[in-house]
Amino acid sequence: MKSKYRNIFLIFGIVAIVIMLCTFDMEYSELWDNLKRAGMWLPAVIGLWVFIYLLNALAWFIIIRDGKKGSPIPFWKVYKLTISGFALNYATPVGLMGGEPYRIMELTPYVGASKATSSVILYVMMHIFSHFCFWLFSIFLYLACYPVDTFLMIVFGIVGLCCSLAIYFFMKGYKNGMAVRTLRLLGHVPFAKKWARRFSEEKQETLQRVDSQIAELHKQRKTTFYASLGLEFLARVVGCLEVYFILNVMTDHVSFVACILIMAFTSLFANLFFFSPMQLGAREGGFALSASGLSIPSAFGVYTSLITRVRELVWIIIGVMLMKVGTGTPNKDKQ
User: Fold this and answer.
1) How far is it between the farthest Cα atoms of the chain?
2) Is 332 within a domain?
3) Distance separating alpha carbons of residues 287 and 239, to the nearest angstrom
4) Is residue 327 part of a domain?
5) In whole angstroms, what is the distance from residue 197 CA to residue 186 CA?
6) 308 lies in some domain
7) pLDDT tens digits for the chain (335 residues)?
């Protein structure tokens, strides 16, 4: 990537960090008291994400390798781009608007534009796909561990149906590709349709090549497909340890199953408000509601959301700083 484009992403990340530091809903003295209360669990929560991002990077690295023995890009570079990409996504309203272009531009010198685009699209699809799998799994987990009334049965039925439909459409997208269809859909969206139609005409061959690479992964390399999906799903389950660590600050009467359900409901609730940067407010409400729904004091949920917010901010800062580390690319002439 050219240095000026990388600097644009860097400036955007720094501005986002400053805005987030100014939008905490409490006095900094109170925030500091809460952080001190977390004690050793705060570095444990932050350190946990070293391993979670490692799983995310492995899921993407498997897609980039595409079943081959070697790799055109070293794993440490993929790991770095994973952290920086998520940092930009956390800070971006609507999500997936900053990290993905950044990853594509950084990966292109190693594998070429079409391969970089298809691998990033595939990984994003896998990342979102694992969300729906995790939510559906959590419904069955709740049914197995907790009593359910009529209202919850209706809610679970609606959520389960939506997740099942999403999984079905994702599988269709993996079989046939999604790049061309996505651009066609954007061609009917106000404010984006002119750009989408022009881009589709100018990059038609590239988009078709991207779709063929997406379809090829599912049809011919199922081991790669399911290994990547398994790593993403595992990352979500491991991520529930964050809630377990934080709640242990206040109580030792919380199970890991309850933490999985809290994380599932919170992520579902927060994604309904995807237009908010860092899902401000939505995540706090999701933590409080999910905790109280499992007979855990809602105040515990609010505290959990606070520590999670601090962890996100720390990793956003790390991700933005990593954007200026290891910026050399060996295959600069590759298109």
Assistant:
1) 62
2) no
3) 14
4) no
5) 8
6) yes
7) 556 656 666 666 666 666 666 665 556 676 677 778 778 888 999 999 999 999 999 999 998 987 777 778 999 999 999 999 998 887 765 444 567 888 888 898 898 887 888 888 888 888 989 999 999 999 999 899 888 888 889 988 998 999 999 898 888 877 776 777 776 766 676 655 676 677 777 777 777 777 787 777 767 677 888 899 999 999 999 999 998 998 888 777 788 998 898 888 888 877 765 544 454 545 555 565 566 566 666 667 677 778 888 888 889 889 988 988 766 666 444 44
C-alpha of 87 from chain center = 10
Q: Is the dihedral of CA 85, 86, 89, 90 positive or negative?
A: negative
Q: How far is CA 78 from CA 49, 59, 165, 318, 330, in A?
A: 16, 10, 31, 15, 14
Q: Calculate the alpha carbon distances from 87 to 9, 14, 46, 71 in Å.
A: 11, 11, 14, 25
Residue-wise over 36-47: b if at least 16 C-beta within 10 A, else e? eebeebbeebbe
What amino acid occupies position 131?
A: H
Instruction: Quote the domain boundaries for residue 188.
Output: 3-64+75-322
Q: How many CA atoms lie within 13 A of 121 on its CB side?
A: 25
**DSSP for 222-291?**
HHHHHHHHHHHHHHHHHHHHHHHHHHTTT-S---HHHHHHHHHHHHHHHHTTTTSGGGTTHHHHHHHHHH
| 8 Å CB contact between 315 and 46 | yes
**CA atoms of 295 and 38, how far apart (whole Å):** 22
Residue 335 within any structural domain of the chain = no
Number of domains in the chain: 1
Residue 238 CB-density burial (10 A; 0-12 exposed, 13-18 middle, 19+ buried): middle
d(CA 120, CA 124): 6
Amino acid letter, 221: R
